[in-house]
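Protocol step 4 of 5: obtain the predicted structure for the target chain.
Materials: sequence only (see below). No template structures provided, no constraints applied. The aim of this step is simply to have a reference model before the mutagenesis design in step 5. Sequence pasted as it appears in the construct record:
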Amino acid sequence: MEHTRMLSLAVVGLLLLGCNTPPTDGARILGILPSVGRSHYIIGAGLMKALLDAGHDVTIVSPYAMKDAPPDRHRDVLLPELAATHDVSGPDLFEYKNAPNLVVLYLVYNEFGPFSSKALLEHPKMIGLMESGERFDAVIVESFASEVLYGLAEHFGGQLFVFAPFGASMWTSELVGTPYPYAYIPHTFLSYTNEMSFWQRFANALVGHVDKLYYRCVFLPQQETMFRRYFPNAKLTFQQTLESVRLVFVNQHFSISYPHPYAPNMIEIGGIQIQPPKKLPTDIQRYLDEASDGVIYFSMGSMLKGRNFPEDKRIAFVNVFRGLKEKIIWKYENDSLPDKPPNVLIKSWMPQSDILAHPKVKLFITHGGLLGTTEGLYHGVPMVGIPIYGDQELNLARAEHAGYGVKLAYETLNEETIAAAIRRVLTDASFTERAQLISKRYRDQPLGPAKTAVYWVEYVLRHGGAPQLQSPAVRLSFIEYNLLDVYAVMVAIALSVLIGIGAALKALLRRLGIVKRDDSQRRKKNQ
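Step 4 output (structure tokens):
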């Protein structure tokens, strides 16, 4: 009887334990992908697809719909107005080429990020979801000047994860206490490598500290104001919400980036959007297969538009392409290209990774976005890069430093510079060799980015938020983290010791008669 009673209590205990432990099989996951930049969405969608493939139930809030997802475990909360309001299909972002990097960073902090967050939180569909009473086991939010959105995790009762489309940027590293050593980690918006001269380290540290000061003293207080407005009933403060981030996924990998000192809960998933090559559209497949001299693929990404090239630069590309024996596939967002050469195929949208996977592709002309450069390296294709803004300078500086690409300055684009860069990469086999070597290194992973991401999401859910992964650095102030209080006490102790030693030595010398007392001391003694 007693044995039966104990067995019953054990079963009840196990049931209660099961109720308090979030499930990892078929967990309910909410993905918040607010950025109007389609490249950012593609990275987030790659993470969501990995979780779907692992059997989890996924809801995605975004301007874009996920394709080919199982309808029984996937739901899109579509907010197309976010992209339409921002006019993502039309702005000429080439204008940012002449803007200082800190100005672009200011726009991210004060326009791009807050605009998307505000538009999302005020959208009727999002308000409906928030008022639905639904609960999720995990809430995954894009980290792109969107800290106010982290409040959605507490609102929906889930563990908070974020993913960083730029890799381990300063503001993402701060979330989990990952160090950001300016001595060898270049700022995201600077065109430096991990081997910097003195003045580059000086500029890197200066920009980094200015960025951090603005982020902490201006941007985060603005986000906190938005947080109190949109989450008035939150039990956690804004600071506690930032500290509640369980895991950060970064869109990079050490084999194609630089070694970085990570906190345990900062995980690399660079290339998670890359899928096994799919069958290409018939016309593109035939165009590639029939290219006896190879193919050059040309794309300026999802936000920059080839059609927005100034006329003189567009004509320069057209004239150079006309003189090449290779065929050209150009992502060009108009139905027609003036004076288009016969060896050029244009389309407004391309299956980029599938094209780069084709063995006939010999060169990738790119703006240097992290999405495209990762795909190019995965497939071992060398590059000619034309950076415009953001992290593109950094990515192409890395390409030149590692030997798999050539960087072209936008200001000097003309027939001579374009032709010289293309000719250099196509005729020097070392560029292809380096790209293929890095591809081998990148592909040599125990799980790959998708399975790695799934494992860590499930790990955090299995272990109740996995507090064992979290660095105490996130709870330290600037003074504590940098040991300024400790160094101040050390200096005070050292000065006290030196003053004490000096006083004792002086007293000893006086006693030995080596140093005489001054007249004021004598008068004081005689009195």
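Step 4 remarks: The first helix runs from residue 2 to 20. The radius of gyration is 29 Å.
Proceed to step 5.
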